[in-house]
């Protein structure tokens, strides 16, 4: 099996070999991108696209008010988010069946491509306000919702649901829980003390901060530079997926056939010892 690469190199942050520190680094990067895309998307189309709770609530509100067109629009946005998460699941499971190093990089490569489409398409339609309202806005809502579901599913699978990047409700809730433990007045003996998980508190504070910084940068970017703001986000995504993708390309593993359980076990089996007394392998053992 390929060996892990240094985790401090950003282009290996999506490697199939994982560690808690590597998960946090990738999570911070994706939180920044999600915050920028969410805030920038609001300035571009007047709607947040990562707030699934709001989507579901709006479905209920519009349904009661009899606004069926808005109900269908919210259902479509919710469906796009779910489709993005489904796409990540399909891509990651397909890649893991083939023991590809780029299993987690491929969905983010798709996200980078679609972000680039959003930026180029939006910039080209700025000259036609009628197209912005009638065509671009609905498509952009679906596209950004799809991207949010795609990205959130990547880090969810990588971290086993410990890290989320497109919304901060759960993160802020956990921060409140740990802060409550921190200020709890312990008067019981040591075995019964309430203890704060400082590592978890620090991780969630960093993730929320990254989302906030991304939102500020995205809002500033779309305010002053418009859709060109998507280019740095695309570049950042390409940076973190470069290592595993190039590794699979160099080794001809872009789309190999699925491996059976026997083939996978053979890959993990160590090389057999030499059959000769002198320690030299036979000629037919060396291969062509």
Report on this model:
The chain is mostly helical. It contains nine helices and no strands. The protein has helices at residues 20-45, 52-64, 68-97, 105-125, 129-159, 169-182, 198-224, 230-250, 261-268. The longest helix is centred in the middle third of the chain and has 31 residues, at 129-159. The radius of gyration is 23 Å and the shape is globular. The two termini are 22 Å apart. The relative contact order is 0.17.
Describe the secondary structure blueprint for this structure:
Layout: H1 20-45, H2 52-64, H3 68-97, H4 105-125, H5 129-159, H6 169-182, H7 198-224, H8 230-250, H9 261-268
Helix pairs in contact: 1-5, 1-7, 1-8, 2-3, 3-5, 4-5, 4-8, 6-7
List keywords for this structure.
288 residues, disordered C terminus, single chain, 9 helices, mainly alpha
Considering DSSP H and I runs of 4 or more, what fraction of the residues is helical?
Answer: 55-70%
What would the principal axes of the Cα set say about the shape? Answer: globular
Mean pLDDT: 83
Q: Which sequence of SSEs, written as H and E, runs from N to C? A: HHHHHHHHH
- Total of helices: 9
Q: Note the quaternary state here.
A: single chain
- Percent strand: under 5%
- Overall number of strands: 0
Please state the structural category. mainly alpha
Computed Rg: 23 Å
Largest sheet: none
End-to-end gap? 22 Å
Low-confidence stretches: 262-288
């Amino acid at each position: 099996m390929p060996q892990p690469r240094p985790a401090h190199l950003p282009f290996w942050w999506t490697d199939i070999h994982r560690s808690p520190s590597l998960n946090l680094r990738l999570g911070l990067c994706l939180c920044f991108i999600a915050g920028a895309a969410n805030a920038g998307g609001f300035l571009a189309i007047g709607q947040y696209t990562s707030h699934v709770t709001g989507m579901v609530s709006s479905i209920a509100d519009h349904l009661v008010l009899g606004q069926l067109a808005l109900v269908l629009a919210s259902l479509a946005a919710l469906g796009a988010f779910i489709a993005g998460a489904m796409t990540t699941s399909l891509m990651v499971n397909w890649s893991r069946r083939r023991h590809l190093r780029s299993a987690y990089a491929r969905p983010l490569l798709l996200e980078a491509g679609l972000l680039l489409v959003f930026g180029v398409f939006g910039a080209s339609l700025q000259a036609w306000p009628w197209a912005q309202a009638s065509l671009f806005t609905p498509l952009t809502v679906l596209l950004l919702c799809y991207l949010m579901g795609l990205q959130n599913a990547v880090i969810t699978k990588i971290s086993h649901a410990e890290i989320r990047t497109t919304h901060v409700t759960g993160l802020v809730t956990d921060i409140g829980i740990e802060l409550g433990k921190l200020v709890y007045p312990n008067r019981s003996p040591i075995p019964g003390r309430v203890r704060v998980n400082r590592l978890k508190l620090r991780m969630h504070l960093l993730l929320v901060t990254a989302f906030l910084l991304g939102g500020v940068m995205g809002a500033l970017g779309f305010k002053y530079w418009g859709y060109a703001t998507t280019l740095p986000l695309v570049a950042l995504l390409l940076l973190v997926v470069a290592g595993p993708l190039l590794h699979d390309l160099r080794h001809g593993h872009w789309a190999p056939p699925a491996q059976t359980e026997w083939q996978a076990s053979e890959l993990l089996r160590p090389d057999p010892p030499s059959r000769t007394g002198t320690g030299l392998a036979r000629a037919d053992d060396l291969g062509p």
